[in-house]
C-alpha cells in the first residue's frame, strides 16, 4: 500500500475520532458509537486507526451519529482525495465493469499521446470482442463481482475508435508473453493475434514487442498507461492506481522508454506475432 495513501487514511481516521470525542452533546465511546451505527466495535477501531477505508455511506453515517451532519461534506472531500490515487477494485466493481470502462474511455478521449506497457495480456485497446469477453469473465470470477460482460465489452470496443483519429498517437509495448498467454481459448487467441497483425500498419499506432530473448534493463512488471504527461493508470490485483504527480509520471515514462530499448518493431514484431500464432496450431 502506498505510504501517501496510508498517511491520508490515518489522517481521515484521526478526523473521525475527533468528531466522536468532541461531539457537542458530549463524547461518545467507541462502543456507544458502534451501537448507534449498528456496527461491530471493531469497525470503529479500524476506521479510526487507518486500518480500513471508509465508504461514502460510512462517512455520512458517522457525521450524523456524532450529531455533526455538517461535517459530512468535509469527510467526503477527504475520501475523494484519498481515492484519487488508489481505487479499490472491490468498490469500483460493485457496479460492474461497464462504469469503469466509461471512466477510462473519457480519459482516452481527452488524451492525444498515449504510452502503454502490457506484460501478460493484449492491451485493451487492441482486443477483439471475444478476447475482451474472456478477460472480463475471468476477472469477474477472481473478484466475485457483478457480471456485466457484454456491456463492458461494448465499452472497451468504443475506445478503439481513437485508433482511427489522426490527432492521436498510441505507443504500445507488450512483452512476448502477452502474445502467448492462454487467458482465452486457443481459437480466440489466434483471432486476437490476427487482429494485432492488422494494426501494425496504422499510422496512429507504434506497436513494439519485447522478445523473451531480449536483454532487459528493468523487469517487465505491471502494465500501465501514460496519458499525455498528466496521468498514469496502473492496474494491480487489488486496485487501480491513478497517478498524477509530475515525478511519478516522469518515472513511468522512463520505465516505458527503457522497455522500448528492448523492443522490436515492424517486420520483426510481425515475426514474433506469427510465431505465436503458429504455436497454437502445432
Characterization of this structure:
With 282 residues, the protein is of the alpha/beta class. The chain has two domains: 3-84, lambda repressor-like DNA-binding domains (434 Repressor (Amino-terminal Domain), Orthogonal Bundle); 89-279, 2-Layer Sandwich (Endonuclease, Chain A), CATH 3.30.870. 52% of the residues lie in helices and 13% in strands. The chain is built from 13 helices and seven strands. It has a seven-stranded mixed sheet. α4 runs antiparallel to α5 (72-83). The chain starts with a helix and ends with a helix.
Features:
2 domains, 434 Repressor (Amino-terminal Domain), 13% strand, 7-stranded mixed β-sheet, single chain, 13 helices, alpha/beta, 282 residues, Endonuclease, Chain A
Largest sheet: 7 strands, mixed
Strand order of the largest sheet: 1-7-6-5-2-3-4
CATH superfamily of the largest domain: Endonuclease Chain A
Question: Mean of residue pLDDT?
Answer: 92
Q: How many beta-strand segments? A: 7
Total of domains = 2
Write a brief caption for the model:
The chain is an alpha/beta fold and 282 residues long. 52% of the residues lie in helices and 13% in strands. It has helices spanning 3-21, 30-37, 41-48, 56-65, 72-83, 89-92, 98-110, 129-143, 149-158, 176-180, 186-199, 246-260, 266-279, and strands spanning 86-88, 113-118, 169-175, 205-210, 224-227, 231-235, 239-243.
Q: Secondary-structure blueprint of this entry?
A:
Elements: H1 3-21, H2 30-37, H3 41-48, H4 56-65, H5 72-83, E1 86-88, H6 89-92, H7 98-110, E2 113-118, H8 129-143, H9 149-158, E3 169-175, H10 176-180, H11 186-199, E4 205-210, E5 224-227, E6 231-235, E7 239-243, H12 246-260, H13 266-279
Parallel strand pairs: 2-3, 3-4
Antiparallel strand pairs: 1-7, 2-5, 5-6, 6-7
Helix pairs in contact: 1-5, 2-3, 4-5, 7-9, 8-9, 11-13
